[in-house]
Amino acid sequence: MEQTKKLFSQKPSSYWRNSTEMPTYPALEKDLDTDVLVIGAGIAGITTAYELTKRGRSVVLIEGRELISGTTGYTTSKLTAQHDIIYHGLIERYGEETAKQYFRANLQAINYVKDTAAEHGIDCEFEEQEAYVYTQLDEGVETIEKEVEAYRKLQIDGYLADTMPLEIPIKAAAVMRQQAQFHPVKYLIGLLKEIELRGGSIYEQTLAVSFDTESRPVVHTENGHTITANHVVSATHFPVQVENQYFSSNMNPKNSYGIAIKSKKPYPDGMYISLESPKRSIRSLKKGDDHYVLVGGESHVTGDGSSVLDRYERIYQFAEEQFGVEELYEHWSSHDLLTTDQLPFIGKASDDAPGIYTATGFGKWGLSNGVAAATLLADLIDGKDNEFAELYKIGREMEEAEAVSIGEDDVNRISNETVVKPDNLPNGKGAILEKDGQTMAYYRDEKGELHEMSASCTHNGCPVSWNNADHTWDCSCHGSRFTAVGEVVEGPALRALDRE
Ligand SMILES: Cc1cc2nc3c(=O)[nH]c(=O)nc-3n(C[C@H](O)[C@H](O)[C@H](O)COP(=O)(O)OP(=O)(O)OC[C@H]3O[C@@H](n4cnc5c(N)ncnc54)[C@H](O)[C@@H]3O)c2cc1C
Ligand code: FES
Question: Which Pfam families match (predicted)?
């Protein structure tokens, strides 16, 4: 236990990024004028840029940090239309036609990745797999049965099972055939090459910080340049392009975790996710003849102040019991944005900002939905009809997301267990403490130097909380994350935490 705690205290790193040679691109050093500007190099942005260059458009793709360093670099990478339990609910809420469309959009996305990888010879470890959502409780059986009934109504190729190839005792499982898993970073690097071959330009370390939307959109970058475009696609995870309360009101950020282990037991085929919480999401990883397994889960509201170290530990215990851990290979975490009706937002960002498009709210299923976004956005830019435009429409009426209520007590719960003043703060730890009536974030680095910052997120002022495993300050409102010394790791925040 102590040993794994120590391992999980080390800096997390992504299996996907570490198992790939990452290309580098320059930062933007001049002003540009282009047809389409795509902001954000995750699956949604890169696929959109690829699709548009393929259609003959002139495209510039900018990334604020490193390529594929957002959620796409830290995912589980199941490429599936089985999004946990969703189809029964979609039928109830929106009817069979909408539910069918959602399935079709995601099935087409799987085929898009398969065909694109084959067309360009991209070795992205694409493998067809059956996808299972399982329950271990009697109370869960009805939910699974209803989902399988929804499969039948929607003509989804699937079935009800009472056992699985993976030896977990279950009460029932909904199984979807012909789903897939792949290596997202290898795939997307293949697309980046194709974007360049078709004349597209790619820039890293080029953060978009503000937008003028009066005539043609003009995007200002942190390093002092402008990019003027006919169309701008903001694929920045949480949209950063325009003030739009709609996104804040209708989405919540949720973190989850992954570990890659070398298993003592052979792994059967299949991708698995539990119906019950704590969630467990399982798939194999391809590494020569060895059996590597990715185990994920422990979903929770980002920045809720709970102990992230304990979450990694619980996933590890599950992996140990299930597979026997021969080696812990990597551990990582990330967050995604969940809408209240489980459908993403893809399309024109707002009526007030012509020429600006966005794709967000993928609800932890953004690998297929992010690919669906690319063809939908390319059609909108081309002025073509797209059968999924209404399904994903931004501005549709929906129940507002329950406000995430993270009070100061929650924020302080972990960080302040023993700390009452900055002097008590041990090396390598962070804490939220009061100073002159203000809430401050303190971090003492490994050399003993104390860093003092405001605990207000620079996006919209919500309180940040200390993440005791990843050593970040996390914001519960829209998911911004900051390094221990306050630099932005992940937006929508664009500025570091304030210092006096
Ligand atoms: C632990 C975990 C497991 C998951 N597993 C699965 C799964 O198995 N299957 C599945 O389908 N989905 C899964 N998801 C969800 C999926 O990974 C995400 O929905 C998807 O990767 C989001 O892609 P994106 O392109 O929208 O965002 P990102 O990948 O976050 O890309 C956005 C990019 O924009 C950049 N950016 C942000 N702001 C700016 C700016 N101002 N200027 C320039 N660049 C900027 C960021 O640096 C980033 O690189 C999982 C999510 C998590 C957290
Ligand atoms: S991310 Fe919006 S206030 Fe912190």
Answer: DAO (PF01266), Rieske (PF00355)
364 lines ligand 1 (CB under 6 A): yes
Residue 102 located in a structural domain: no
Whether 294 is covered by a domain: the verdict is: no
Q: Is residue 484 part of a domain?
A: yes
Indicate whether residue 455 lines ligand 2 (CB < 6 A). Answer: no
Write out the residue range of the structural domain in which residue 467 sits: 408-490
440 C-alpha vs ligand 2 centroid, how far in Å?
A: 16
Mean pLDDT, consecutive 10-residue stretches, the chain (500 aa), reads 69 89 96 98 98 98 96 97 97 95 98 98 96 98 98 98 95 98 98 98 96 88 96 94 77 92 92 96 85 91 80 94 92 92 94 90 97 98 96 84 48 48 87 88 93 94 89 90 93 88
Q: Return the beta strands (E) in 191-289 as ranges.
A: 201-203, 208-212, 218-221, 226-234, 251-263, 271-274, 280-287
C-beta of 361 in contact with ligand 1 (< 6 A): no
Distances (CA, A) of 233 to 18, 47, 350, 377, 423: 28, 11, 12, 8, 47
- Look at the chain and report how many structural domains it folds into: 1
Q: Is 435 contained in some domain? A: yes
Q: Which ligand is nearest to the CA of 463?
A: 2
Total-model pTM: 0.94
